[in-house]
Amino acid sequence: MIDKKQALRNQFAINGAPFITQVGAPNPYLYIKAPDDLAAEIFTRKTTARENGIADLMSKMANPDRMTAAIRWDCDLSPRTTNKKQLTELGVTVPESLETLEDNQIHATLWRIIYNLARMGIFLSETNTYTDRDLLNFLITRVLLDEIPDLPPTPDLSEFISAHTSERVGLDEVVERDQLLPRPDRSHLTLDDFLNTKIVPSKS
Asked: Is residue 26 part of a domain?
């Protein structure tokens, strides 16, 4: 019999990570497909690989502990990829440079990336010193190219990426974007679940 937590992981594998859409933010359904059979297949495959890896580690532990095994798998043993590759798998086009985009395409391209990252459980923060063009450039030339663990969306963890780098110190805010960014929906978590949820440090 599947327990409640495993059922929740299976739900994430089918639907992606649930997130809260802020009042006044662009409509996410303009930028992501739902339901999405391709995403469900990808997330389910990666979830199965992760669960099998964690189970294998636990089988070798004198005192099996899922959290310890999950951290070991996620940090050290999982396959590696980039956010750009993950987005491309989902059918999201990530431009090589801004030169290929007209001004009126910048906003839509940025929010398509923001929402599809959120669907994978990855959330941006501290973006108000960036114009849409600058933030998109920061993402496609730096953040999305970093090597990362290739993990599925899971209730076990959320990742936050801060756009506040040393180069941005002292710059004035130019937009009020942060209040519009999606945030993880943790309404499904009990207090114990919340306390055991991993928050992955930002990688600005």
From this structure: no
